[in-house]
Amino acid sequence: MIPVYRDNDALVELLRALKPWDMPVIVVDGDEDSTTCAIVEGQGRYVVAAPGRGAQIAEGIRHAATPWIWVLHADCQPSAAAVDELNAVVASRALGWGRCDVLLPGLPRVAWWMNWRSKVTRICTGDQGMFFHGSALESIGGYPSLPLMEDIEVSKLLKHSKFPFYALRGPVTSSPRRWVQNGVLSTILTMWWCRLRYFFGVSADALYAAYYGGIK
User: What are phi and psi of 210, to 5 degrees?
Assistant: First the structure.
């Protein structure tokens, strides 16, 4: 499952990386575009949804025909190790959810902290290639259709469920462009400020407006 929004160059690279594994692919576009549709043609299904990762992922899941969903951002690259570990989870017939380790080129300490924190707290980010069995999502009422904090919300709901959590060591490499453009410290502070405000009840819609209006 790939939510995308005006990021065709990255999407081309991700689809090329996925091709050897012959996975069923659903690309959910938050801005209907004939060029994006043509890129997906022949390798997956193209779906249009309201912009916002939560809404896009939720819409894509409604079109999925497989019991497991692997959500990859368009600007990431999965490793063979990640695919192998995920296939092992699927083959074990266990039900659950989890994430992969993330690599951020040029920012190894940030990536290490993200991986350690999510392993301990089971609160993950979309950059980590989160995956879910459909029954786990059904148990929480489906994937949260939020414009921001959807990854935090789904983690929060599932960590208290009966389903096992898998912290895979096989990595996905995520683009560090947001960190480079906005600065590492500024990005960290902004992300944690958003999380803190969300914890104290600020709506995801309000956070979305502030986040993308301030550091897009």
Answer: -70, -40
SS3 per-residue string spanning 65-105 = CCCEEECCCCCEEECHHHHHHHHHHHHCCCCCEEEEEEECC
C-alpha 194/C-alpha 199 separation (Å) is 9
CATH 3.90.1030.10 fits 2-176, yes or no: no
35, burial (CB in 10 Å: exposed 0-12, middle 13-18, buried 19+) = exposed
Domain residue spans of the chain = 2-176
Query: What are the φ/ψ torsions at residue 53 (nearest 5 degrees)?
Result: -60, -40
Give the distance between the most distant pair of CA atoms in the chain: 45
pLDDT tens, N- to C-terminus, the chain (216 residues): 999 999 999 999 999 999 999 899 999 999 999 999 999 998 999 999 999 899 999 999 999 999 999 999 999 999 999 999 999 999 998 899 999 999 999 999 999 999 999 999 999 999 999 999 999 999 999 999 988 889 999 999 999 999 999 999 999 999 888 777 777 787 777 777 777 787 777 777 777 776 666 443
